[in-house]
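**Protein record**
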Amino acid sequence: MEKLFYNTISDTFQYEIPKIKGSRFITTLIPVTTKEQIEEELTKIKKKYFDATHNCYARRLGVDANQDLFFNRNISSHQDRANDDWEPSNTAWKPILSVLSWKPVFDILAVVTRYFWWTLLGVWWLIQAYTEWTKQAIEHAPLIQKEITKELSLNYTYDQVSTVQYFFSKYETKVITEKYDENIAQTINVNIALYDSLIKELVDKQIKFKE
């Protein structure tokens, strides 16, 4: 079975397009992993562009890979959140979040800063603008792929080392923590697409584990 990956951004990225009827749009994409980091980054943006008319945003935090009735994995976000920042309702956050979901991109904060220049764009133009400038920013941004993994705790005897090491190699697991005492205790990460197969083999070989 093939491993599962998700798209995210490697570094903070900014993209600005030519003015539309005098309005200036600046899109900032930021990699994030916690709510606290999101709040910090939003504070920085609002401080940097304190004179902007709007700082609209959407964010996708965390990754879920749920299995359907046909055993296919569907990737979704733990938490989506967005804000129009006083633009007409649904003209900013919905377009921004729609682009992030369509690509799809996770663990990302997208902020579109707008400087208004006294020419009303209208609802349709606003939706098109926030959609297009988020899309353009994503297409130019330094996107990377990361594995979707799940954590597992193992506790096994020294006689089982060779078997466990074989599983580590077969499933390309990553050891996070380990402790050597009477038994060996380890915490590992395994790609979620391979998780169930590994569990089955651990059960077959009577290797203790905790999900």
